[in-house]
Amino acid sequence: MFKSQLTRTAALTHTALLLSSLAPLAHAADTPATRSTAPARPSAPRTVVGGQVNGGVLVSNHQILTPLGKTFRVEGARPKDLALAPDGATVAVLAQNKVLFFAPDGTLKNEVPVKAGPLGLAWTPDSRALFAAGDNGQIYRINNANGTWKMESQFPAVDPAKGAGVFTAVDASAFEPSTPPSPSPQASTPQALATRGGNVQVAGLAISPDGRRLYAALGISNTVSVLDLANNNRTLAVVRTGIAPYRLIVSPDGSTLYVANRGGRAPLPGEASAPSAGTSVRVDPRTDAALRGSLSIINTVTFGVAEVDAGRQPADLKFSPDGSTLYVANSDEDTVAFWDVRTRRVRRLISLRPPLDPGFGQIPTSLALSGDGKTLYVACGGGNAVAAVSLPNGRISGYLPTGWYPIAIAEKAGRLFVASSKGYGSRVVRPNGGMNVNSTVGTVQFIEPAQHRQIAAHTRRVALNNRWGLAELPARRNMQPVPIPERAGEPSVFKHVVFIIKENHTYDSMMGDI
To answer: Are the C-beta atoms of residues 139 and 103 closer than 8 Å to each other?
Structure first.
């Protein structure tokens, strides 16, 4: 259904942009005459994962990284989220075991140890305090004490004094925009919060415009907790959402909370589904992947809830300056939806897929809007880049290179801040001399406005880093076999490839006795 809404303009723009960027590559392709007379070519030189002699970093999936701007290395940790303070003076980055605080120029101010959840940062409107999602159902409050950020408190996302089942919610999942929910909250029958190992999994956080309320997505419990910051973090309500709530955003007037649910609505009887963390999720019967996401729309006065379908695995939400449009990044669909707040319908859907992409996908993870509202920046986890989308036409004007898998992005006065989860890859050497999945060097980038002016050159760099278009060039004759040919149709040393997928296990640990 969403595919039929893809704009032809976006696809044509992509094609023109990338073909012009890759023109020198096309000129390097062999002509029929030279192919027939060229001598045998030597094998390609062996490349090793890591830093390259001619610049950049090669990672294990054959992509090259050339992050733009001032780049800070987060040694041995993966960034999970990034948030810019409302006053623009501080950039906070949530990593696995700490929150890092930077000045806008990339100078590290200090670090605060935490045990982080999957994501979740929210600033108070006065920029004096930051809330961070912690593991095991906890939330951290970090305050600025004389210029240094320090841990102020830690508290549960759901007040234990309220018991295991606080649900103040109106079942309004079917109400239309013209039919408001009940004017007063109704308490439903208390139910136990779903957990895994006792963890409700705190994810996205948001604060009301007046700074009095904190909203916390509880990913495993499929709820949002509403906390009263002005009254000792008291739990006001726990509101049921769609499955796996992830990101949150409050409307500019504070009247509505929007929740991006990665797992979508609950399956109906007879619909294909599969269990995930104790919850049945609608799945595509062909792939067993989550079928669709959803948006939960919560009235912050009555706690009435409506739910509408969204694209596959919505990852981030941003409002247009006038609040009439909600931009939704669909990470498993490589699209950004322009969602009409008044009609609750997708007004437009743009594709982020370059026609010449060999298959990595773009995986939009995060959104940032320029101060003038004319550019939407999209962090593309699969392309290791930021796409600049011109508004209101939705045309992609180019790309800026990032670290490996950009996970969060923010903007202020043209300056971009980008946190990449995998950064430079697994580059921390362990005591035994090896590297493993926990050896990541994450990255945080600080990209200056002047660097945007070279976006055509940066776009070409991103295309080359991702090998966009190389597979489309004609195969060359007399090439020596290599493990992964540069172009489709060229010889490989392998006849067959068998994928053995076992998370967090190495080949030798599973098949070493063969």
So the answer is: no
